[in-house]
Amino acid sequence: MEGNYNQLDVIGNVILFIPLGIYVYMFLKKLKWYENIVIIALISLAFEVSQYIFAIGASDLTDIITNTVGGSIGIGMYLIIKKIFREDMKVKSFVSICSTLVMIPVAFIIVMIFIYN
């Protein structure tokens, strides 16, 4: 495990785990919010252990913390969306539309990376 990190890694880890927080809370909303945070932390730990075992990237406690912060932000975003739209179906529709809008440019970037590499 490495102890060094940079700001881009921290910000990237937070941003990448925001959707996980939204989806974990959306599908496991019967659990309390802090139980969902524990689940996100365990998922992050599983990713970090996998990276360490398979020597893919660097594993770091900082990653687990920033991933969990990102997931927690996602839970907060879900709760805000829920207060705005109130009905579960409207919330799920909004999250689906936002996910699609984000995925289109991400898919385009991935395709471009494969084409030009």
Description:
The protein is an all-alpha fold. The protein has a domain at 7-86. It is 82% helix and 0% strand. The chain is built from four helices and no strands. It has helices spanning 7-27, 33-53, 61-85, 88-116. Helix 3 packs across helix 4.
SSE pattern, N- to C-terminal: HHHH
- Structural shape: flat
Helix content: over 70%
Largest sheet: none
Q: Give the overall pLDDT as a whole number.
A: 91
Quick description:
The chain is mainly α and 117 residues long.
Topology:
Elements: H1 7-27, H2 33-53, H3 61-85, H4 88-116
Helix pairs in contact: 1-2, 1-3, 2-3, 3-4
What are its keywords?
117 residues; mainly alpha; transmembrane helix
